[in-house]
Every structure is written in structure tokens, then in C-alpha cells.
Amino acid sequence: MKTFLKTVLVLFALALSGSALAAKNILVFGDSLSAGYGIARDDSWANLLQRELNDSHPKYAVVNASISGETSSGGLRRIAKALQLHRPKIVILELGANDGLRGTPLEVTEKNLSSIIAQSRKAGARVLLVGIQLPPNYGPDYTSQFRAIFPGLAKRHKTELLPFLLEGIPPEQFQADNLHPTAAAQPLIMRNVLEALRPLLR
Prior knowledge:
Layout: H1 2-21, E1 24-30, H2 32-35, H3 45-56, E2 60-64, H4 72-86, E3 90-94, H5 97-101, H6 106-122, E4 126-130, H7 140-157, E5 160-162, H8 186-201
């Protein structure tokens, strides 16, 4: 009987230990800029973020649900299932670039992103909204209004904001399309994300 009770206590202790060490998921929900388009997946900033967190915040696990070519509309259709499947503590939302490149009406992009943020918050996740900027050839009015979507949403929803994912990336660290960063740029992108993410890791 004593052996049985001791076994039960050990199993109970192990269960408690396991739950204490259970990973807290960080859902990266983005497009090709986060999916690692044109580079090895191991070199993408999301994968580098996981390596960094393994040392500094080992309880967090990065789940990259980004899809190349994704729009805010596509993300809105996917977010409920992603939240249910991964149950993230944090959502890094990086969408909108493809909307802008396609000339999607600004109010549509803003509404979609707002709904994704709201659903993420309702599911119990904190949100880091990642800002994107368009090339200047789309015209000063459209590009400036597009850029303003992100701080506006962050203020409205009281989320953390990374104003521009690609801040500080030099021209030579973009691929031939001048839109997607090379592998060499990924560590700096990861640092940009990490700095904005830090308040949510506390």
C-alpha cells in the first residue's frame, strides 16, 4: 500500500512539474515576410526568434502559421481555427502587405486586422501588431494612409506595436524582387520583433 501511495505521489508531482514547464505558444500569423519566402526556413526570423527564446525565455514556443501571399482577408478566415488549435498566449500579427500591393481599399484592410486582433484578445492572447510600409511608387496619399492603419489599430485595441518590420534593412539585403529580405537580413528583423515583444514576455 505504501509503495502504491508513493507511486501516486510521484506521478502527481511529475504531472505538476510538466504543467509548470508546459510551453506558452507565440503564434506568428503573417505572410511571406514571416514565412521565410525565398530562403531556408531555418534562416527565417521566426525560427531565429525561437532560438533566442530558448535561452532567454524557454517556456515560450514559436508557432509559425504564416503563409506566403496571405492577405488580411485570408488571415481573417483562418484566425479562429489557428487560435483554437494553438491556444497562443501571444499573437504576432504581421499582415497587410499583400493588401497594399493589390490596392485593397484601406478600410477593408483595417477592418480585417481589427477583427483578427479582437478575436485574438477574446481568446486570451496578447497581441503584437507589426506595421508594414509600401514602396513609394504607390503614391504618397495611399502609402501614408496605409502606414497609419497600424498605429491607429494599436492605439484603439491597446496592443503593442512594431511600427515597421523591416526597419534598418539595407537595400543590398533584399532579394531580386526588392520586396523580400534575404537570409542575411533575418537576424536584424528578429531583433526588431524581439524588442517590441519584450513587454509581452514579462
